[in-house]
Fold Malectin-like domain-containing protein.
Amino acid sequence: MSVVLLLSFSLFYLYSSISTAQSPSQSYPYGISYHIDCGGSTELTDRFNTAWQADRFYTGGSTAIVSEPLRFKHPQEKTLRYFPPSSGKKNCYVIPNLPNGRYYVRTFTVYDNYDGKSHSPSFDASVEGTVVFSWRSPWQEDLARSGAYSDLFAFVSDGQADVCFYSIATDPPVIGSLEVVQVDPSSYDSGEIGQGYILVNYGRLSCGSGQWGPGFSNDTDLFGRSWQSDSDFRVSESEKSIKTVVTKNAIAGTEKSPNYFPMRLYQTAVAVGDKEELEYELEVDAKLDYLLWFHFAEIDSTVKKAGERVFDILINEKNVKRIDIFKEVGSFHAYSWNYTVKNLSSTTLSVKLVTVAGAVLLSGLENYALVPADLATVPEQVNAMKALKDSLKIPDRMGWNGDPCAPTTWDAWEGVTCHKNKNGTALVIFQIDLGSQGLKGSISDQISLLSNLELEL
């Protein structure tokens, strides 16, 4: 649970009263979507007809423009919001009034020496109180200059989405754009995996094609996912016999609940010759579980029956599945299969497809880290801390934004100490020490909700 600051409420209602274009757009088939041009002051539509909203829902910070705007294709990539030390260690975008459910969250992050200091910043980013991205200086040169998109799937259970940034040392966190799209709550096997994980994208590959999807082409993905070429992830030995297979035929079974995978994904594929293998090496972080999602469609019309194309999937040299696409779904029909790698001990994940009969054929591959959701502060204590912040007029420099206690790997709000509750399922406020801050104001009656509190003012 997280605090919605008065500033966020004011911005939302102010913009809503000016123009209906400021309200969230509808995302088919589920609910709403926001596309926020961080640092942007006007509404705009990009060349792929995505409507971007002017910057809003931020708790502080300042705006800037990249140093070389002509190098960026999209206007929403040229403006920035950054959070200097005067805004506090922790700053957030807090998007209110969301239906509870699952959301696709995508950020664009770039430095491009916007401040003239030639020092890319170090900071962490969290979604719903869980750390999901870490940026450490110095960034790779191409990343610092051109930026990168990062995305994930997370559940929202408190009616608002919190995307927060935590400064390392005195570096100002920075963000170029933020997108939040409601998706099917049952997507990506959530019934089996549960809602206690955030799925962080470590590679969403389309085989036999270039990069496509929202922000990169006119191709549609109902969840807002973009897909990158698989070519950079293939092991070089696989390149010798790679063949690209393409069809314009319609593919059955696409754009269906709960994952709504686009037809475009299954109309291209890569194949390797008989007795050959197709191998990918995916960079990952150790000590996490990873969800691999494989995509197939038999788009070679010369394959007429089951048994003509059969191959095995090996994950880190372990044979985990035998695939016969035609046997499963016939021809020109989408087929997907997923597998979870538990507690990976290395920083490389090997995926190998080995021929049994005929040739290997693959349309796409997704890799998601299953990041356990962090503990959150008890909801009524969040409300009490929000009331205390308002009544004491806590200054921006103290960074009282987002959840008072989460993520647990960050410091709590300045002057605040948190502990787990008795059963270890949530966080509670244990101590507030503001004696050296020179604050003045009344204390809200909601302070009584902080039942574990030691207070020093």
Helices lie at 6-18, 141-146, 190-193, 263-266, 325-329, 379-392. Residues 200-372 form a domain with the Jelly Rolls fold (CATH 2.60.120.260).
